[in-house]
Design a protein that fits this description.
Residues 5-253 form the ABC transporter domain. By secondary structure, this protein is an alpha/beta fold. Helix content is 39%, strand content 29%.
Length: 256
Amino acid sequence: MSDFLNISGLHARIDADGAPKEILRGVDLIIAPGEVHAIMGPNGSGKSTLSYVLAGREDYEVTSGSVSFKGQDLLAMEPEERAAAGVFLAFQAPIELPGVNNANFLRTAVNAVRRARGDAELDAVAFLKTVRAATKKLSMSDEMLKRNVNVGFSGGEKKRNEVLQMTMLQPSLAILDETDSGLDVDALRIVADGVNALRSPTFSALVITHHQRLLDYLNPDRVHVMARGRIVHSGGAELAKEIDVQGYASFLAEAA
């Protein structure tokens, strides 16, 4: 089976107070179609930076390395091209969009991706039928569709809204940057169910988390430990339980 996402020797930096700061220092990672991988690691290890680089955030400069996604050079694509190709990023801290209706935002995003993929756009009736079915599965009120994007939402509501976007956009690669942060048990299960509902031979996910509890619901194919800007250790789902008990000290020693 061919590689779905292939990250090789990835180095990236960001301008910090007028001076470049290297954050990614040689990330190597391969995800096959249909696989769910998790990345864990201490704060400041580069986990979120990796997600931003994959999504195309312009603040970060790739200085060397490559990323192949479904046989294409992901780094050569603009962010909107990556989205059309099937890349979705769920943010750790979703931003508010005052004045932007949630339903209109979703329909615009869904139809933009459908156009790029050569699919017919959803009219208002078809969209509402689809989105209401999705909100019901996520235990979300239809009232959230009438509100502005994330404005006045609780932390849990923002994360559910991210999962709703993922459900509607049907990506082939979902990157979840600590989407479980600040969630109670019920909301955590809803996030996990949203990912599991999309699992198929043509869908893969990269889940960045500090919490082994989320991985109990997801049962990832591989778990990776990131430290000092690179992946220093990989293993099966049991690795998350080991980290939960022992912490990261031994892995930091590997990264030294």
